[in-house]
Amino acid sequence: MYNYIVILILLISTLNLNDAVFEIVDLSDPIEQLSYVGDDGFCRIPYRFKVLGWNYPTDVGYCRIWSSSAIIGNYGAVDIFALSEGYNFGYITKVQPNDYGDVWVRGNIYSGVLTTLSLTKYSCVPIPYPLQELVPTDNSRVFRGPINTKNEYTIDLIFNLTKRANFTVYTNPPYYCYHYMKDIQTMTLVCGLNSNPPNYTPDPYIHLTITDTLKNNNYFNISTFLTNDQRTPDVSVQKFYTSDISPKIPYSIRNLYYMVTIENYKDGIFYAGVSDQSGRRDSYIVYGNNIKTVMLHSYEYDISKSIEYSTIYNHQQSLIQDTNSISQYSVISKISNNMTVISDNFYNITSLNLYSFQAQIGYLNKNEATLTVDVWEGPTVQIELSMIGGTYANGIYDFSFLVGIYHMKLKFFTGLTYEILKDKYDEEKPKWVNLRVIPLTGMRMILQGETYDGAFSPIQSIQMGDILVKPHDRTVFDYVTYYDDDGVVSYEIYVDYSRMNLRTRTYYIRDVNLYNNTQDMVYSTTKNFLRYPKVILDQQDYGNPYAGIEISELRFDMNNVDLTFIECKNSLYVNFTNSDREMVIRLILNPRDPYPKVFYGHWNETEELFTVEFVLPTAMYSGPVHYQVYYPDLTFDSLDMDYPLIVRSDYADQMPPLISKIVAFPSGVNQNVQVQTNMSIGWTFTIVDPINGIQSGLIKVTSNLGVFEYTYKFTIDPTSEFNYTVEIPIQSQCTSQTYYISYIELMDKNGYISRFDPGNSTKHHYISPLLYIMNNQTDQLGISIECASHTDTTPPIVTNFETNVNSIDTSRYERDLIVTFTVQDDTSVSRLNLPKCKISAVPLDQYFVQAKFLNGTNTTATFQCSTNLPLGFGSIDTKIIVSLQGYTDIYSNLGGISTIDLINGGWNPVINVTYSKDTPMITDALVHNNNNGIVSIFGRNFINTTSVLVTHQNSSVSTFAPIYVNSLYLVIQGISSSGMVLDLRVKNSNGMVSNAYRVNIVPVKYPIPPPCPGTPVCGGPSNGQCSTTLGCVCIDPWFGVDCLSQIIPITPNISTSSPTLENDYSTTIDTGITVTLKSLVSVRSLVELTFDGTIVNTHNLNEWIYTNTTQLSTPNIQEYSYKSNFTHQGRITNVTVLVQYFLQKTPVSFASAKFDMMPSTMKYKIELSSYSFSSTFNSIQLQMPVSIKMDQEVDTCSNSDSGKINSKSDYLKLQINGYSLYTRLINLGIIDNKVHLITNQFSDDNSSDSSSSESSKIIGINIPYYDHFVQLDPDFSMLFEAVNAGDLPNAICYSLAKGRLTTGQIIGIAIAGVFLIAVIIAFLYVRHLKEQERKHFTFIQEKIKSLMNP
C-alpha cells in the first residue's frame, strides 16, 4: 500500500501535458474487438487511442487509422463514427467478412510530427452456423431453480463461439426465456411460464429458436422444468382489490392481490396469471414452510381497465387454471389542463438577473401530478413550483429562478408548454477539452478536466454513469479556474465509486441554458476512454474468463442457519485470484427478487480475506439463499458455485405489517362531519404483524384544498398488534374540505415494508398496508367536514422579513442561513400548517426548508427557517434568493410571496455569495492499516496546505507535513498504529485552519499462536510446517497436533440406538501377539452448572431416534441422525446429533474456523434447542465420554494429552502404544445465531479406570446461558502414532517383569540408584527413544501398506 501511494504521488506530480512529447497510447480493448459479422454484413471493430502532448483540439491536424488490408473506406482510412474530443480518438472500423490485417495510427500535428503506433490486429469472420453445443447431451442440461418467487429456472448452454455474439431467443408457448452471455461461449437462459396460458398440457420440451445477427435460426430442444408431479395441491385463494372509495378521492391506480395458500405441494410450480400484461406484477412468498406455503401475487393497474386473473399450477406436467374476473371502475379525471399566465417578467435588479413566472393552474389533487416544470429542449431539468395562493382546484404558482439572457422553453406538469422569449439562443454545446483520472486509495478518484463553451454559459451539471454532479456541490466539485479568455473551464471532481453502478460509463456535461446543449463523451456504446481505476470491465458479462479473477476461497461464519426465533448476524469471507485489497466488494442477497439486499465489504487484515458483514432476518423462507458476490466489475453467482448458504425457519414470515381495521372518528363512517365547535377528526389504525412484529410507521394526511399535509411517525418495540391514532384538530372557524390518507408506510423489525402511495406508479411497488381491508373498509380513508359559511378569502400577508446575513462565504465549514419572517391576518394565523422557505441559486438549483413557529398572537405569527447551505451553493452567479410559501389562516386561505414581491415590499431576499477557498475543509479520511501510518484526507481547498495538525486523546498536538497535496486530497505519513482517537485539522499557508475531523486508529490484532509442538517441530519439513496462526499445517498423509500421526483407515460401526461409535481395530504388537483396539465416543448427558461449577441438574440422554440421512448428492459423506429430548421446568429441550463419516478429504468450515476433514474421520454436529435454566448466570455442559482400549494388558502403555492446536481449536489425544483416539474441538460455538467463544475441559471418567491398556476421559463442552439454540462441531479420528505411548511422560505401562508403573515411577527408581547406573540408564533410555521412533515410523508405513493392499 505504501509503495503504491508513493508511486501514485510521483505519477501525479509528473502529469503535465505541456511538457510531454507527442505520443500515441493505445486504449483499444481486445475483448470488445472480438465480434462477428453484424446484421449489415460487416464487422464493426472499435479502436481507441489518445495522443499526449497538447492541451487543446486546435493543435490537432490529421490523425487516422490505417490498415494493411482493404478495410471499407477511402484509401484504407477508417473514419466512420470518428470522435475526437480533446486528446482522445475513437474509430469504429467497418470490415468485410473473412478479412484480417494489421492496423496502425499515423498523422500530423500542426506543431510537430505524430509518431506511428501499431494497434491490435483485426479479423472479421461470420458467426458459426449452425451453432453447435460443446456439451450437447440432454442429460447435461439440467434446469436449476426456481431462482426467484416468479418460479423462473435457469440453464447454461455452451456453444462453439470464439467472439462476442448477440442473439435473440424465441420459445414455444406457454414458455418464455430471456438470456445473457455469461462468457463468450456460455449462454445463460432464464425461463418461466407466461402468466395467462390456457388449460392444456404443454410440450415436454422447450423449443428454442436462437437467431443470430445474420438472421440465421438455430434450433435446440430442452427438457421442460415442469416435473411429472402426481400431487394435487390443496389450494385456497383470497382476493383483495381496491374497491370504490367515497367520498371520491382521486386515486388513479388500483391494486389487485391474490393470496394463495398451497399445501401438499412443496417445490411444485404454482403461480397466478392476469389478462392485462401492462400493469406491474410481483410475486412474494409471505408465509410458510415445507408443508404449507402462502404466496402473494400483486398487480398494479389503471382503474379504467377490467381484468381477468387466475390460479395456475402444474399437475402431471399439465397446467391447471382457474379464472376469475373483476369489473371496470369508473374513471376519475386526473388532471384539469387549464393554466392562465398571471405574469412573465425578466428583472435586472441590482445586477440580479431574475426571471419570474406566475400562473394560475387548476387540477384535482397533488397525488395525481408532480408539481414541476421542465426546462427544455434537450435534457430536461425539473424545478418544483411554489404554491403561493389559491387551492388545488385553482392554485397560484410561482416559478422564479436566476438565469442568463438566453431563450428557454418551459413544459409544465399539465402538459402545457410556455416559451421565455429572448433575443439570444445558446445553441452551442459545451465541449470536452480534456478529461483524465487520478486514482486515489479505496475506490476513490479525482476527475480532472476542462470544458469549452463559446457562449460562456455556466456548467449546470456533469453526469458520470448514474452519478449526477452539480457544480454547487463542492463536496465533490471544484473549479480550478473559471472561464478564461477562450471560454475554457478547468475543474476537479472527487468521486467515490465504491457503490456506484460501474457498468454505465458515459460522461455528460450540460450548461445552464439547456437549449439542446449537452455534450457526451460516449463512443458508440456506453464504453468510453475513461475507466474507473482498478475496476475490471465486465464487458457486458463477457469479462470473467479474461479477467484472471476467480474466487479462490469462500466461507460463511454460519452457512446453515436456523432463523425460527432470532436473526443471524453473519459474515462472508472471500478472496479472489489476483485481487486488489483496496476494492470494495458486495454481497447481494436474492438478486432476482423485487427488492434484493446489498451489503458491502472490505479487506480484513486479520483474516487476510475480504469480509462482508450481513444480516439474515428471522423467519426467512427455508431453503438455499440465492446470492451473488460482486468484485468490481465482475459478478459471481451462487448458482454457479458450490458454496451454499442455507436457512430454515419453522414458519416463514416475509409479509410486512398490514392494517386490519380503520375506524374514522368522530362519525365512524364516511359521512360529512358538521363542525360547530373546536373538535378533532382522525383515524384509529389497527396494525398487525403476528410473527415479526410491527416496529415503525409513517402516515400522511392531505387536504383537497392543498393547504394541509400532516405527517405522523411512530417507533415502538416490536409487537404483534398495535393501535395507532392519527388526530387532526379542527377549529370552529374553518372551511369545508376533505381530509384523506395520502401515504402510509409501515415496517416490521426485519425491515419488511408495506407502502400505500396512491397515484405514484413510478416508485417501486410495495405490498399495500391496506391489503386486508381493501374489499370493504377503504371508504374510511377520507373524512369530509362542513363548516359554517364565511366571506374571508384573503390569505395572511408578510409584515416583516429578515435574514441573519447579507453575504456568505459558501466555501467555509459554517454556512448558516437563518430567515425570520412574520405574517398577519385579520382573523387568525394558523399554526398547524408550517410554511416553507425556498432557497434558489444558479444554475437552476433550489431546495425547501421547513419553518418553525417562534411566537405570535391571535392575528400574527413569527416563523423561522434555519439551514446550513450546501457547500458552494450560489457561488456560480454569486447570488442566492429566498421566497416564502405555505402560510395560511384558519379558513385555509393559503399565502406565499415571491422574491420579486419581497424586493418590492422593501425587504432584501437576496444573499451575496463568495467562494474564497481561503479555509480548508475536511469531509472524509481513510486510515490505511499498515506500518507506515498513512492517512488519506479528503475535502476542499487543500491546495495551499502546509501542515496537518493531529490532536491526541491527551490533548497534545503533533504536526505532519503532507507527502502529497491536491485541492481535494492530501496524504500524511507517520501516524502511530496504536489504537487511539485522533482529531485532524488542515492548516494552510495563510494560517487558516479547517474543521476538526475525528478518526479512530484501530490497530490490527493478529492472534498470538502457541508454539508449534513436536520433536522435530511439526514432525520436520517432510511432515508439516509451522503457521503463525494455524499451528502445525500437516502435509498429507501426516496428521495431528504435531504432524507425527497418520489416520487409520477404518469403517465405523454405526449404532442404531444412540450416537455411540464403537470401532474395533485388530493389529499385531511388537511381541507378535494379535490384539484388538476398541475406541468409544458417545453423548451421555447435559449438566447444568452454577458459576462456580456446582452441578444443579443432570439430564441423561438414554433414548434416541435414529435415521440414516446419507444424501445421494454427497456420496463422499455418510451421515446418520440421532434425536433425543428431555423436559425440564415444563420446557422440552431437543438434542440432535448428526454423525458424519468422511470418505475423502473435504474442506469444511464452522463458526468462522476453516479446516479439512480427512478420510476415515468422524464429525459430530450437535444442536440443542432452548433450555430452561435455573438462573441466567448458569451454564450447561455437554458431556461426551471417550476412550480407547486394548483387549490385553501385557506390554502396553497408555497416555492422555490435551492442549491447543491454535487460537480456534483444542485437542484431546488418548493413546495406547502406537495408536490413539484423537479429538479436535473448535473452541467456538454458534449460540443464538452468533459465534461465541466456548471452553472445553477434560476430566477423568469415574465409570472406568485408566490403565496401561485403557485410556478414557470425559469431554465437557461448556455452553454459556442461551435463549434459543446451540450448535457444536467436534470431530474424532483413530491414528497411528510415530511416538509410542511408553516413550511419553506420565504414561502408564505394564509388563510381566515390572508390573504396572508409570514412566515417571520407572525414572524415579533409576535416580535412586548409583550415579553411574543412572547415567547408563539415561543413556539407554535416550537410545531407546530414538530406536522406538525409528521403529514406529517404519511400523506406520508398513501398516498403511497392508491396509491399502490387503
TrEMBL record:
Keyword set includes rRNA processing: no
UniProtKB keywords: Membrane, Signal, Transmembrane, Transmembrane helix
UniProt-listed PROSITE patterns: EGF_1, EGF_2
InterPro entries: ComC_SSD (IPR054484), DUF7034 (IPR055462), DUF7035 (IPR055463), DUF7949 (IPR057709), EGF (IPR000742)
Transmembrane segments: 1306-1326
One Pfam family here: DUF7035
Signal peptide span: 1-20
EGF-like domain boundaries: 1032-1043
Protein name according to UniProt: EGF-like domain-containing protein
Species: Tieghemostelium lacteum
